[in-house]
Write a structure and sequence with these properties.
33% of the residues lie in helices and 13% in strands. Among the domains are: 55 residues, Electron transport complex subunit B, putative Fe-S cluster (3-methyladenine DNA Glycosylase II, Chain A, domain 3, Orthogonal Bundle), CATH 1.10.15.40; 164 residues, FAD/NAD(P)-binding domain (3-Layer(bba) Sandwich); 149 residues, FAD/NAD(P)-binding domain. The strands form six sheets. Strands 7-6-5-8-20 form a five-stranded parallel β-sheet. Strand 14 and strand 15 form a beta hairpin. The termini are far apart. The chain has 26 helices and 20 strands. Helix 12 packs across helix 15 and helix 16 runs parallel beside helix 24. The chain binds flavin-adenine dinucleotide.
């Protein structure tokens, strides 16, 4: 046998043995590849971005098939991808709200001063490592575009001012941009997460935005108005305040007190701009349809349909829950309808605004009183998952002097509520309104429109201490009411018919500050004066009525303070009964509309946590005190006068209840929007004169 033949046979033998070993090994060690892995992988986005926590789409698909991940494993894919994966697996896809990258800096890339030159570093991460960021602003965007370069979906480009612009259509929420941003100005958020967000210590916030109780992104909506995007402005406002038609008319606008433009000339007319945008939506005849998260099936009873209740119901609905509003009155609106008069807030505007909120799918039960028609126990038995109490403060305080119950003496809110309901009480020739708040001012202006010969406002402190809005006080005087300061009623005297005929009042002097910080009025003995009066309207304050459910079992009894306000955790608004939350005037005592609206959203956030089985914790990293913002260098900023709100003449006003203020024109609104400095915490836009300043 030749050596070649031997070698061939030997090799064949080895091959045979190897084949046999492999056959046995394949039988012993065979790993069955589930064909669904390939199918799931095909259904996934294929980005291999790793944002799901698996080292690629193949690994993610394997995790789904092995039951280690759900059909919505792909954070970068939307609901359709989750559905496709679920189909392969024969499962139900849980509806997932898509998350998108959101930019938290609107300002600093080209507006915050440089501390160093980047000197060759073209990557934000490197710039932070080498120079600590190199900008004076430590919380803003560095503008080197690392996020743009790393986004695998082309969803980010560096736009005007060197800031990244996220294309929401292309953004898959993979989070790569968030991970690479060293200053954390990019974050991932779904719309309902955005609605639940409160200012944090890390946010870049203009001073106006910090001062707004509702936390509206003021510079953003003004920027929209500047660019003629009025509906976008409304959308921005409604992320924080679902009642811009109302607030644009009655808000005392603390934001304007903090406006940086005050260092230049006058504050931007922020609230007039809000009204302009909201009026634009109304004039368009169509309510904006906001995004509503998938239904959760959780039912929440909202008791009280004033601004706090409406706001809470609105945000709960947008988060996918099912709120139902219960209210004692025939119509919703609370003090907006039954307190604030028609000439400041027309009923039709309020109706339109409330219609838009209810159109999201909110059921209402009017003329339904908690404690009479429904009870907390009943609501719990009916299967409500949570309750929000927003009952307001409707019990008037009496004058506490002899004769304060005589016929002819009325409480301010009762008088205004009757007027609003079309049941105008008869008034004498001279009416004295006692008090210095909004109720007193509104009552006095209403009397003037009802044809009273003389209206006097008696206030026990001085003008500086009056809690009413300054502008309303000025208008009341222009309309003819007489303001009498440092005076208080000491006795009310009946005439022969037993009805109120005379008022005795006493002069006051201001003493030491009281618990409110205002100087305490002290009577000056011997200064009593008597005047003839037809009516007295007492508008010296309201309290909540917290005896709404006296028969509630012990486990449903809610704590109350000595001021008759409900007790709750101030940051979550959860009461001692875990499924009951509260907010608005019933919690704080009489405050403002915007504060009630802010409380409604805060409670909606807490209720969302509660009904979804999460811990009801305060908003993480919440900003509790304003961060100081340095004043701008005003030298480059051209002076430009603030827009004046057009108003009807006094003669025209007093002929009826027509709205006094008529709203800014489009030209005036856009010119006013130009005055905004578009501030961040430390930066602001210099020379915002662009379009209009030369026109005057
Ligand atoms: C005359 C007047 C003028 C004002 N002007 C201004 C202004 O210009 N700017 C400003 O910002 N603020 C103003 N305010 C304050 C502002 O109106 C309130 O702060 C705000 O309305 C409070 O909102 P809320 O939702 O907490 O309560 P409310 O608006 O009082 O709403 C409470 C709701 O609860 C309902 N309710 C009460 N008890 C029950 C019950 N047992 N069962 C069922 N329902 C119940 C009521 O019917 C009502 O609808 C004014 C207030 C008044 C009285």
């Amino acid at each position: 046998m030749s050596s070649i033949l031997i070698a061939t046979l030997f090799l064949l033998g080895i091959g045979l043995v190897a084949a046999m070993i492999l056959t046995v090994a394949a039988r012993v060690f065979h790993v069955h590849e589930d064909p669904r892995i390939i199918e799931v992988e095909d259904a996934l986005l294929g980005a291999n971005c790793g944002a799901c926590g698996h080292p690629g789409c193949a690994a993610a698909a394997e995790a789904v098939v092995r039951g280690k991940a759900g059909p919505n494993v792909c954070v970068a894919g939307g609901y359709e991808i989750a559905q496709a994966v679920a189909e392969v697996m024969g499962l139900e896809a849980e509806q997932v709200e898509p998350r998108k990258a959101v930019l938290g800096c609107r300002y600093s890339a080209d507006k915050a001063a440089l501390q160093y030159i980047y000197n060759g570093a073209h990557d934000c991460r490197a710039a932070v490592l080498l120079y600590g960021g190199a900008k004076e602003c430590m919380i803003g965007c560095l503008g080197l575009g690392t996020c743009e370069r790393l986004c695998p979906f082309g969803a980010i480009h560096m736009g005007k001012g060197g800031l990244p612009v996220v294309n929401e259509r292309l953004c898959t929420g993979c989070g790569i941009c968030v991970d690479c941003c060293p200053t954390h100005v990019l974050r991932l958020e779904s719309i309902s997460e955005r609605l639940r967000r409160f200012h944090t210590v890390e946010d870049c916030l203009a001073p106006c935005r910090q001062a707004c109780p509702a936390q509206i992104d003021i510079a953003a909506y003004i920027d929209h108005i500047r660019n003629g995007r009025y509906l976008a402005a409304v959308e921005t406002i409604k992320e924080r305040n679902p009642l811009p038609l109302t607030c644009g008319r009655v808000c005392p606008h603390p934001c304007e007190m903090e406006c940086r433009r005050l260092s230049v000339d006058e504050a931007v007319a922020i609230n007039h701009l809000k009204r302009f945008a909201a009026d634009y939506e109304r004039e368009s005849g169509k309510h904006l349809k906001p995004y509503i998260a998938p239904n959760t099936g959780k039912r929440i009873a909202v008791i009280g349909g004033g601004p706090a209740g409406l706001s809470c119901a609105y945000y709960l609905r947008r988060m996918g829950h099912t709120p139902e509003i219960f209210d004692a009155q025939p119509k919703l609106g609370g003090m907006l309808r039954y307190g604030i008069p028609e000439f400041r807030l027309p009923g039709k505007a309020l109706d339109w605004e409330i219609e838009g909120i209810l159109a999201l799918g909110i059921e209402t039960h009017t003329e339904t009183v908690l404690g009479k028609d429904v009870t907390l126990q009943g609501l719990r038995d009916d299967g409500f998952d949570a309750v929000f109490l927003a009952l307001g403060a409707w019990t008037s305080m009496s004058l506490g002097v002899e004769g304060d119950d005589l016929p002819g003496v009325m409480a301010g809110v009762d008088f205004l509520a009757r007027q609003a309901a079309g049941d105008s009480p008869p008034l004498g020739e001279r009416v004295v309104v006692v008090g210095g708040g909004n109720t007193a001012i509104d009552a006095a202006r209403t009397c003037l429109r009802c044809g009273c010969g003389e209206v006097v406002i008696l206030y026990r402190r001085s003008r500086e201490e009056m809690p009413a809005n300054d502008r309303e006080v000025e208008e009341t005087e222009r309309e003819g009411a007489r303001l009498h300061f440092l005076a208080a009623p000491s006795k009310l005297i009946a005439g022969a018919d037993g009805k109120l005929a005379k008022l005795e009042y006493i002069q006051m002097e201001l003493g030491e500050p009281d618990e409110s910080g205002r100087r305490r009025p002290v009577p000056a003995p011997g200064s009593e004066t008597v005047m003839e009066v037809g009516n007295i309207i007492a508008a010296i304050g309201q309290r909540p009525d917290v005896n709404f459910d006296a028969d509630a079992p012990d486990d449903l009894k809610i704590g109350a303070t000595r001021w008759d306000t409900l007790e709750a955790d101030e940051r979550t608004l959860q009461t001692n009964v875990p499924f009951i939350f509260t907010g608005g005037d019933v919690y704080t005592g009489p405050q403002t509309v915007v504060q009630a609206i802010a409380a409604g959203r805060r409670a909606a956030r807490s209720i969302h946590l509660y009904v979804t089985g999460q811990e009801v914790a305060p908003p993480p990293g919440e900003l509790r005190e304003a961060v100081p913002c340095p004043p701008p260098d005003a030298s480059d900023i051209p002076l430009s006068p603030r827009a004046e709100m057009p108003a009807r003449s006094v003669e025209e006003r007093l002929r009826g209840f027509q709205e006094v203020e008529t709203g800014l024109s489009e030209t005036a609104a856009r010119r006013e929007a130009q005055r905004c400095l578009q501030c961040g915490r430390i930066c602001y836009r210099v020379g915002t004169q662009d379009i209009f300043s030369s026109a005057g």
